[in-house]
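We emphasize that the prediction below concerns an isolated chain of 214 residues; any contacts that depend on oligomerization or on bound cofactors are therefore not represented. The input was used exactly as deposited, without trimming of termini.
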Amino acid sequence: MYTPKFNQITDRTTLLEAMRAYSFAILFNSSADGAPTATHLPLLVHDEGEHGLLEGHFAKANPHWHALAGRETLVVFPGPHSYVSPSRYVESLSVPTWNYIAIHACGTLELIEDETGKQRLVEELIATHEPAHLARWRSQPDAYRRTMLAGIMGFRIPITRIEGKFKLSQNRAEPERHNVRNAQAAGSDDERELARWMDRLIFNTPATHESGNP
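Result of the prediction step, given as a token string:
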């Protein structure tokens, strides 16, 4: 990922937090026939190892997991993004751009094939996104739960390399950064999210947690 130095974020805590906030990720590699392939999946992000640990599951019918098993996999976490108008700049010789957050994580994908391991993954995902549903899942007939678990293939990816790009107008003069931040704070959900990250990483002001994310 092309990342100018002023857009790089290397702080481990910040990267893990952002990956959790934007955890619907994309796994890239080649399919069994060598064609470029991507799969979109919700992931669990664990604070384990040097850079973190990712876990999730494929539909077993998705052939992509066969190609990824035991191979280095690129996982992309797309964050909020927005258009930035040159009208926000003091310098008249300016062009439009796009601000965004993206994290690329790489590691070798390891399969989780046993029923116990897959059940743990499913329950962790439920607990993350809808804790109240966990009791209902556990109360389902054993035969039903086993059928559901048989239809998925779990995996883990210990992260060995990670890149964080937070493009937040860091290269602009301070008055222009404030103009961009103020415009985004009054904009769409993605724009407000980017404004909160600007508050935190550029202006060092406390973030408001309107959306539950940073």
